[in-house]
Design goal:
By secondary structure, this protein is mainly α. It has a domain of 53 residues. It contains eight helices and no strands. Helix 2 runs parallel beside helix 4, helix 6 runs parallel beside helix 8 and helix 7 runs antiparallel to helix 8. It is flat.
């Protein structure tokens, strides 16, 4: 009798354990499936983002190639290509007020002949043209480049003055005044000193 009760109890416990295991397995499967779906979603997202980025880069490269080809057709380099012939193109573009041509030829000039005696002049012409056209940040970039790379060049003082004018246009009056004081202190005999004094009056009136 006791043996029969033990056998029944054992069978019940075994069946109960199997049932629990099955329930646990069933509960884990949806969770596992959910994790798999989440991982699959993020993998697809990464693939799509990568594909989109590659597509954008491809479009950008093609656009640059097309623009480069257009510029080469519109603004051909002189033949023969020399320092003097390319600088002549810079002067011509400046005199004709062709900003696109001037920007391209100056870029080519300082890239090909960075140590030329005309390099700072080429940059100055582009900076001055940009300033006239109201493109102050572009002008400031050229004037600062002259100051940084050609401190002994003949356009250094003019670039200092141009930098002060750019600061005034950007309403950075304190910076403009600092540059003008530097100009007057370091180059008291330069033609830009009188212009600097007039510029200081304009800054004072703008405050």
């Amino acid at each position: 009798m006791v043996n029969l009760l033990l056998m029944g109890t054992l069978r019940f416990l075994i069946g109960f354990s199997i049932g629990l295991a099955m329930l646990s397995s069933c509960a884990q499967k949806p969770a596992q499936q959910s994790d798999d779906l989440t991982k699959m979603y993020f993998r697809n997202q990464r693939r799509e983002q990568l594909a989109e980025r590659n597509s954008f880069q491809s479009v950008l490269k093609n656009a640059r190639r097309v623009e480069h080809a257009r510029v080469m057709r519109e603004y051909p380099l002189p033949n023969p290509l020399t320092e003097e012939s390319l600088y002549t193109r810079v002067i011509s573009a400046y005199q004709l007020r062709e900003l696109g041509a001037l920007d391209y030829y100056v870029g080519q000039f300082v890239y090909r002949y960075p140590q030329s005696v005309f390099a700072d002049s080429a940059l100055y012409l582009r900076g001055e043209m940009s300033l006239i056209m109201g493109m102050t940040p572009e002008a400031l970039r050229d004037f600062e480049r002259i100051i940084a790379q050609y401190p002994t060049g003949k356009k250094y003082v003019a670039a200092l003055y141009g930098k002060a004018v750019c600061y005034r246009n950007l309403q950075l009056y304190n910076y403009a005044e600092q540059v003008l004081r530097q100009l007057k202190k370091e180059f008291p005999g330069s033609p830009e000193v009188m212009r600097a004094s007039l510029e200081e009056k304009m800054i004072a009136a703008a405050h």
